[in-house]
Design goal:
2 helices; two-stranded antiparallel ribbon; 204 residues; Porin; eight-stranded antiparallel barrel; mainly beta
Length: 204
Amino acid sequence: MKKVVTLLLISVLSVPLFSQIKFGLKAGAATATVPTYDLSTGTNNIQALKDAAWGFHAGLFVRLSLLGIYLQPEAVFATNTYEYNVTTVSGSDIMKQTFNKLEVPVLVGFKLGPIRLNAGPAAAIQIGSPKALIDDPDFENMYRGATFGYQAGLGFDLFKKLTFDARYGGSLSGKFGDAVTIGGQTFQLDQRQPSFILSVGLMF
């Protein structure tokens, strides 16, 4: 959580450097690859019913622009629900697992004609703990409180009021491992599932 606050503080301190500031609300849907569990030995087996599932998100953003470049920090509540066929010693059952997160991407972008291109780090803060699919005291330890990945994509604005975005969200752990240290601060990376994010926003 401390690292997320640091990320937001850097964004706020950057405000005086930009000549144009816009605030906005946004909402949309995201499809993500269903998390899988390596628990297929013995009497426990957790099998995803689908490879991907849709969720929704809603939140707010600030866009700070200067000389064709913009900085856009966001705070977005996101939720996804996945279904599994869970087999234990007691039998088999269909169970749902919901992930609620506060997503905090900080994107840097520029315009290429009418299209905006952007990319940047994205923090994810787990809200609560997803339902344990099996009776295991270590199950909740699979979920970290706050982790970091990235988002990148494109968008366009309409009438200087409406904004549309399509982004890809992914993990940095495949390239950098479980954590990176920047300026003495250690940022935990996660094995987040790849996601495709669609959103529409209203700017003020």
